[in-house]
């Protein structure tokens, strides 16, 4: 399952793990996605939404 927000499209970003000797290895920073029940186009559905979208009320939670 892809790490992508259903509302804003935020996805994973590439970054580096940096050791004390400054050697770099690849890592991925993934968004904090939460499974929620939301109302999308008038019908309730499940979606994976980032916490920023939940906090800023970009979604309407289903009852």
- Mean pLDDT, to the nearest integer, reads 94
Could you give the order of strands across the largest sheet?
A: 1-2
**Cα-to-Cα separation, first versus last residue:** 25 Å
Q: Report Rg.
A: 16 Å
DSSP helical segment count: 1
What can be said about the biggest beta sheet?
A: 2 strands, antiparallel
Identify the overall geometry. elongated
Total individual domains = 1
What is the succession of H and E elements?
EEEEH
Q: Uncertain spans, ≥5 residues at pLDDT below 50? A: none
CATH-defined topology: Ribosomal Protein L24e, Chain: T
CATH architecture term? Roll
CATH superfamily: Ribosomal protein L28/L24
- The amount of helix comes to under 10%
Give the strand content: 35-45%
How many extended strands?
A: 4
| CATH C-level | Mainly Beta
Question: Would you give an account of this structure?
Answer:
- With 63 residues, the chain is mostly beta strands.
- It has a single domain (1-63), classed as Ribosomal Protein L24e, Chain: T (Roll), CATH 2.30.170.40.
- It is 8% helix and 44% strand.
- It has one helix and four strands.
- It has one helix at 51-55, and strands at residues 13-18, 24-29, 33-40, 43-50.
- The strands form two sheets. A two-stranded antiparallel sheet has the order 1-2. A two-stranded antiparallel sheet has the order 3-4.
- It is elongated.
């Amino acid at each position: 399952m892809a790490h992508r927000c259903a509302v804003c499209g935020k996805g994973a970003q590439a970054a580096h793990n940096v050791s004390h000797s400054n050697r770099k290895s690849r890592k991925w920073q993934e968004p904090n996605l939460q499974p929620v029940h939301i109302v999308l186009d008038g019908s309730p559905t499940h979606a994976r939404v980032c916490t920023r979208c939940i906090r800023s009320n970009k979604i309407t939670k289903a009852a």
